[in-house]
Write a structure and sequence with these properties.
Helices cover 21% and strands 24% of the residues. By secondary structure, it is of the alpha+beta class. The protein folds into two domains: 214 residues, HIT-like (HIT family, subunit A), CATH 3.30.428.10; 161 residues, HIT-like (HIT family, subunit A). The strands form three sheets. It has a twelve-stranded antiparallel sheet with strand order 1-2-3-6-9-11-10-15-16-14-13-12, sandwiched between helices. A four-stranded antiparallel sheet has the order 5-4-8-7, with no helix packed on it. The protein has a two-stranded antiparallel ribbon with strand order 17-18.
C-alpha cells in the first residue's frame, strides 16, 4: 500500500496534498497537508525514520462465541502498548531536534496517518497454509487470523489541543482524510467495515492525550453493525421502506430530540438513547460513508461537528472537557452495503459533573440497558448549551 515519497492530491480543487512514506519497521505513514509551502509542493515532509525498529509483525487471532455468534479478538501484544508517557516521549508529536524520534519523522505536520504500532488487527502477519481454524480441534470453537488494518489519525501537532480546537479548515481536512482512508481501506480484500473513531478523556481509558483518533477495519461485521443490518432487512421486508429514512423522518416530525438541522445533516438525540450524553449526526440523504459525501456535504459537516463538540463540552457545568467516544458508523463493504447509512454516534459515560456511569450487572452481563436520564432531557440541554463561537 505504501510508495515511498509518492505525492498525490485528494479533494476538490486539490484540497489536500498527500505524501506517503514507510516507517523503519515497514508500517505505512501518510502526510496530509492543507497549508503552504507543503500543499503547493514547494517543500516536502521528512520521509526517513531514523529509529532502529524490528520489522512489524503481529500475531492476532479472533474467536467466535458459539452462543452469540460475536467475534472476540485476542491481541496479547497490546498489553505492553504505550501508556500516558511523559511530554518528551509523546509518540504522536512531531520529531523535534534534540529529542527522541517519534512515530512522525517530520518536525511538524497538518494531519498525519500511520499504521498502529500495537494494532488489534494487522496485515503484518504470516498465516501458515495449515492454520488451525478451530480451538482445541473443536469445530464449535471457530478461530481465524485477525487480518485487517488499524490506523492512527493525528488531528493536530499540538498536544494541548483537542478536535474542538481545530479550525473549520482543519476539521474539513480531517474529514477529507477519513474519506480518503475509507475508500482505500474498503478496497482491501476481506474487509467488511471501516470504522473511524475518537476516544477523548482519561476517564474512558485514553492512553495518549495527544489529539488523535483511530481507524479500525474489520474482517467481519461488528455486533452493532450486524444488528443494524438485520433490523434494516426486516424493516424493508415488512414495509418496503428504508429503516434510516423512517427513523430520521420520525425524529423530524417529533422535533423534541432535534439539536440542530442544516441543509445536509440532522443532529439529534436518538429516541432510545442509552448514554447520559448521546448525540447522532445523520445525513439527510442516503450517503453510505465518508467517501460517498459530496464536497458541500463535507463542508457542512465540518461546521456542524465542531458546533456539536462545543455543545457537548458545555453540557456539564464546571466541566471543561466532557469525555466522549465519537464513532463514525459507515455502511458495510460488500453485499450488505444497502442496509447501512453513514452516521455519527457520539456519547459520554459522564452522568453528572465528574461522575461516571459504570456498567453494572444488567448492562455488562446481559446487555440490558438502564438509562439515568431521558433522551428529551439530553436534547434540551444540548440545544441550550453554547455552541462554537463564530
Amino acid at each position: 500500500m505504501s510508495d515511498n515519497g509518492t505525492v498525490e492530491y485528494t479533494g476538490e480543487d486539490k484540497l489536500v496534498r498527500i505524501t506517503r512514506t514507510t516507517l523503519a519497521d515497514g508500517r505505512d505513514l501518510i502526510y496530509f497537508d492543507d497549508t503552504d509551502p507543503y500543499l503547493s509542493g514547494e517543500s516536502t515532509r521528512e520521509l526517513s525514520d531514523p529509529r532502529d525498529l524490528p520489522e512489524a509483525s503481529t500475531l492476532s487471532e479472533m474467536r467466535r462465541d458459539p452462543l452469540t455468534g460475536d467475534w472476540t479478538v485476542m491481541a496479547a501484544h497490546r498489553m505492553n502498548r504505550t501508556f500516558m508517557p511523559p511530554a518528551n516521549e509523546n509518540p504522536l508529536a512531531p520529531s523535534k531536534e534534540g529529542q527522541l524520534p517519534t512515530e512522525v519523522p517530520a518536525d511538524d505536520y497538518n494531519v498525519v496517518v500511520f499504521e498502529n504500532r500495537f494494532p488489534s488487527f494487522s496485515l503484518h502477519m504470516d498465516v501458515p497454509d495449515d492454520y488451525d481454524t478451530t480451538v482445541d480441534g473443536e469445530e464449535i470453537f471457530v478461530r481465524q487470523p485477525a487480518k485487517a488494518r488499524c490506523e492512527v489519525v493525528c488531528f493536530d501537532p499540538d498536544v494541548n489541543h483537542s478536535f474542538r480546537d481545530l479550525s473549520v479548515k482543519r476539521a474539513r481536512t480531517v474529514i477529507e482524510v477519513w474519506a480518503n482512508r475509507t475508500k482505500e481501506l474498503s478496497a482491501i480484500d476481506g474487509i467488511r467495515q471501516v470504522f473511524p473513531f475518537e476516544n477523548r478523556g482519561a476517564e474512558i481509558g485514553v492512553t495518549l492525550q495527544h489529539p488523535h483518533g483511530q481507524i479500525y477495519t474489520y474482517p467481519y461485521l461488528p455486533a452493532r453493525t450486524a444488528a443494524i443490518v438485520r433490523r434494516a432487512k426486516a424493516h424493508r421486508e415488512d414495509t418496503g421502506r428504508d429503516l434510516f429514512e423512517d427513523v430520521l423522518a420520525a425524529e423530524k416530525r417529533s422535533g423534541k430530540r432535534i439539536v440542530a438541522e442544516t441543509e445536509y445533516f440532522t443532529a439529534f438525540v436518538p429516541a432510545a438513547a442509552k448514554w447520559p450524553v448521546e448525540l447522532m449526526i445523520m445525513p439527510n440523504r442516503d450517503a453510505k460513508d465518508f467517501a460517498d459525501l459530496t464536497g458541500k456535504e463535507k463542508d457542512d459537516l465540518a461546521v456542524l461537528y465542531l458546533d456539536m463538540l462545543a455543545k457537548v463540552d458545555n453540557f456539564f457545568e464546571g466541566v471543561e472537557k466532557t469525555p466522549y467516544i465519537a464513532g463514525w458508523n459507515q455502511a458495510p463493504v460488500g453485499e450488505d452495503r444497502q442496509y447501512g447509512r453513514f452516521h455519527l454516534q457520539l456519547f459520554s459515560l459522564m452522568r453528572s459533573p465528574n461522575r461516571m456511569k459504570f456498567l453494572a450487572g444488567s448492562e455488562s452481563a446481559m446487555g440490558a440497558w438502564i438509562s439515568d436520564t431521558t433522551p428529551e432531557r439530553i436534547a434540551e440541554t444540548l440545544r441550550n448549551a453554547p455552541g462554537r463561537s463564530k
